[in-house]
Design goal:
Pfam families: RabGAP-TBC. It comes from Arachis hypogaea (Peanut). Keywords: GTPase activation. This is Rab-GAP TBC domain-containing protein. By secondary structure, the protein is mainly α. Among the domains are: about 140 residues, Helicase, Ruva Protein, domain 3, CATH 1.10.8; about 120 residues, Cyclin A, domain 1 (Orthogonal Bundle). The chain is about 60% helix and about 0% strand. It has 19 helices and no strands. Helix 12 crosses helix 14.
């Protein structure tokens, strides 16, 4: 019997070691050393954090495909091996969610110092952005872990491909794009209803109804001028994207862009902002930037907002399968209670969690979204699994009615950056372990 216990202890020790090594690797990556995503076994020659190489775990780098978006069609060097070992996958499956929580909490505390306010990180961003041509791979690596507030407008425009990497062309392109937006407003928005089709009239009416409902707990968004700007941006987008037209939820997706691009003109807390302090030219520039960045974001998720929203339905199915793989007790309990993932997760994918967490954390979350580029839709599955399993223990104690109420009103109102970083670090770790493994997300 004692021999059996010894063997079990030995196995647990190996498991703890593997898991903690993974977390240390993630920590290095989240400090901006390498693009979070698939980890490759390719040891760095320099020590992590300048620590003693003998005691530190190896750090790994990610290989990029030519599209720099982090999609699945990576090209690998002959000396690189994916971390998709069946042993590691099996080990991770055996980890309880409480083990993940405990280790993530320890890990998250140590990453708080790597926040975007650190002067060293600010210097790294400054160096990347000051080049004649911005290297987008490097910018994505840095942005994944958070962007300094005053650099966010520039970084987001670059990450979305709205502003060109070449600094000599940037102002010319932005000026031309902003004029194009104004022409669109003049042609399609500033016209009488008699010049619109019935569908266009109904679409505009729905947008007008939805704008006051957008981020209702942030007083700034209740200003009439803010709602008018939202209305113009959404109507212009819907007219220019007839395959989907306006879909409820897209109004939420404009709000992070609006607050970020307004921050170039308005100072202090959003609670004290007023659109009346801006010139019409400044408002037009902000609206144009929001319109183009929204368009770029949704270009990568076109089937999320077409009829029946098949893209979202597909990702909800993947989320259900991933949760089953990571935390089988939660998956089984939700299924036993008769709750469908579509009933709560559809809104998460539709609004990208904007309605689920405090608004002051949204821009930090979106730094990671935009850094993922074209790989974002698939990575959302991991973020949302991590988000859901934050409450693993709670969920298993609730019946159907209680589950529905709890998931519609998640207790995130007091969340800080620390809770969000924990969600992102777990998501990255699970993505590294599970993504592309042979039995992963079987349909």
């Amino acid at each position: 019997m004692s021999n059996h216990h010894n063997q079990q202890d030995q196995r647990n020790g190996i498991l703890d070691s593997t898991f903690n090594q993974t977390l240390r690797t993630v920590q290095g990556l989240l400090k901006g050393r390498s693009m979070p995503g698939k980890i490759l076994l390719s040891p760095r020659s320099d020590p992590v954090d300048g620590s003693n190489t003998k005691d530190s775990s190896p750090s790994y780098r990610r290989s990029f495909s030519h599209n720099d978006a982090g999609t699945s069609d990576h090209t690998y060097g002959a000396d690189e091996e994916e971390v998709q070992s069946p042993t590691i996958i099996a080990n991770l499956n055996r980890l309880s969610i409480s083990h993940v929580e405990r280790s993530s909490k320890e890990f998250s505390k140590s990453t708080i110092g790597a926040r975007s306010t650190d002067s060293a990180r600010v210097m790294k961003f400054t160096k990347v952005l000051s080049g004649t041509t911005v290297i987008l791979d490097k910018l994505r690596e840095l942005a994944w872990s958070g962007v300094p507030d005053d650099m966010r407008p520039t970084v987001w425009r670059l990450l979305l491909g709205y502003a060109p990497p070449n600094s000599d062309r940037r102002e010319v392109v932005l000026r031309r794009k902003r004029l194009e937006y104004l022409e669109c407003i003049s042609q399609y928005y500033d016209i009488p209803d008699t010049d619109r089709s019935d569908d266009e009239i109904n679409m505009r009416r729905q947008i007008v109804v939805d704008c006051p409902r957008t981020v209702p707990d942030v007083p700034f968004y209740q200003q009439q001028q803010v709602q008018k700007s939202l209305e113009r941006i959404l109507y212009a987008w819907a007219i220019r994207h007839p395959a989907s037209g306006y879909v409820q939820g897209i109004n939420d997706l404009v709000t992070p862009f609006l607050v970020v691009f307004l921050s170039e003109y308005l100072e202090g807390s959003i609670d004290n902002w007023s659109m009346s302090d801006l010139s019409s030219d400044q408002i037009n520039n902000v609206e144009a930037d929001c319109y183009w960045c929204l368009s770029k974001l949704l270009d990568g998720m076109q089937d999320h907002y077409t009829f029946a929203q098949p893209g979202i339905q597909r990702l909800v199915f993947k989320l259900k399968e991933l949760v089953r793989r990571i935390d089988e007790p939660v998956s089984r309990h939700v299924e036993d209670q008769g709750l469908e993932f579509l009933q709560f997760a559809f809104r998460w994918f539709n609004c990208l969690l904007i309605r689920e967490i405090p608004f002051h954390l949204i821009t930090r979350l979106w730094d990671t979204y935009l850094a993922e580029g074209d790989a974002l839709p698939d990575f959302l599955v991991y973020i949302f699994a991590s988000f859901l399993l934050t409450w693993s223990d709670n969920l298993q104690k609730l019946d159907f009615q209680e589950l529905v109420i709890f998931l519609q009103h998640l207790p995130t109102q007091n969340w800080t950056h620390q809770e969000l970083e924990m969600v992102l670090s777990r998501a990255f770790m699970w993505h590294s372990m599970f993504n592309n493994s042979p039995s992963h997300l079987a349909s």
